[in-house]
Amino acid sequence: MLAALPACGAGARAGAACAQAPEALRVLPDRIDGSTLLGSDAERAAQAGAGPLRVLGADMASDGDRLGAFVEVPAGECMLGMARVSPGIGDVDLFAFEDDGSAFSTDEAADARASILVCPPHPRRLYVMARVMSGAGAVSLGVQSVPVEAADAVARAVGARGRVGDESGRLESWPGLEAKIRAHRAAIGARWEDTRRIALPVGSRTASRIGATLEGGRCLDVLVSPSNEVASLEVVAEDETGRIVARARERGPDRSLTLCSTVSIDLSIAVRSRGTQGLVAVVVGRSQPGAEAEISHATPIERVTEGRELAEARAAHGRALAGLGYGAPRVSTGAARLGSRTTLPIELPAGCARIDVLAGKPLADVLAELWSDDLALLGRARGGARATLFTCGGGGPARVDVESMARPGPFAVEVRKEPKAPPALVAHPLAAGRLLGRMSATGPSGAAAAEGARAVALDAARLKILPLQIPANTCAEVIAALDAEGAGVDLRLVDTSTGESSLARARHVVSDSRCAGAAPVPAAIELRLAAGKGGALVLTRTSPRSP
Predict the structure, then answer these.
(1) For the domain bounded by 454-544, which CATH number is listed?
(2) Is the pLDDT reported for residue 528 higher than 70?
């Protein structure tokens, strides 16, 4: 039997070697310092106005690995999210998910630096996640709070995506998408700002969904464009209960939805492929407040509304108009039906009048037309739970035609005399009705607020130029409403000191605005008819610029 060999050599040297035997294997509590990778960009963001860096996590990762955490974002602030990596990683994507799993904001560009900027309106809580797309190495994820007024500067400082109008990066190479969006929006009319652009994987078994908020007084435009491998699509808008409130219409291979509402509502856009899997580009745009009147009449609008009993709807409307100087209304009632018109005779007061057609449950999507005693059209309006008409003139007998465009039900017509009747409005009844209707779309407003309106003659062959001085720290809104002659009006606001301009087009009423900073801005209003000759009422109103 062999004797056991000593672990160390003989003599004094052996004793010293044995005394210095290695320690046992240990697991260290050390962690990767995430601020090292994020530090330089976080400092640039802070210099542009962002708050301190908060590291959500850091780790070693390779293809497909993820790193994320929940973040609570104050309602009135923006959030900057950043993912930064070591040189071994060639591509990292960054996402902010809602609680239901919908991607609220993404940066999916083929880049080793990913940044998103989420600004109001946004969910209270988001799950911020980084995903390694290629390579292996260290990845660090962090967020910073950003005041709304510093959002643009911070986004430029770090190259953040996710702001209104930005692409996710995944759609950058989508063939022809930008031209398609421009043509689509031009056909709709009004002005739009992007709130979501996302490439969404779709299949035939289950619908893929993204969230969207339809704010009261605004409209949403949804355009869904499939990639080549997706043959056919079904796109619907659902409310919080899962009820389908609208179905998208076909535009060749694309699908589109235009939704408007007087009340704020959270929606889900559900997209399902018929038969094949692939990707679709989903682009969601938001209108300016009250812009429904500027949308082309050829564009089908889905009106999302809440149903109320007629008595409740009338009471709520009376409270909304309290304090505007209206007296008690003259009231008529009737029942609206699908496929036919219900006519009610009314008496118009001299001066200007407001006529509200209020829908009672289950009536939804109301079309109302106002005709004079000699059968001249005085106004037309359409709304989900309420259609409001305005008219000015000498008064007398008239009629209101009411038609249900979705579900039948009871309605009430309330006629109120306006406390004031500016002469320019009385002289141009149809233009006055369109102007007052556009003004009231952003909140209760009466004819007195249009006292500064002026009548101008327009000609398709000539530009009409009106001077405009915008005081310091204010915004000027210009509204132009056509009279009975002519259709199609262009409105261009020009900063005459710099040459910068904006252009808005609509069929009968158009609006645009421009703001001045610390110094007044000399500007000009340019108006032109699309064809023929006609008159218009033009109103300029100013308001303090938001800080």
Answers:
(1) 2.60.120.380
(2) yes
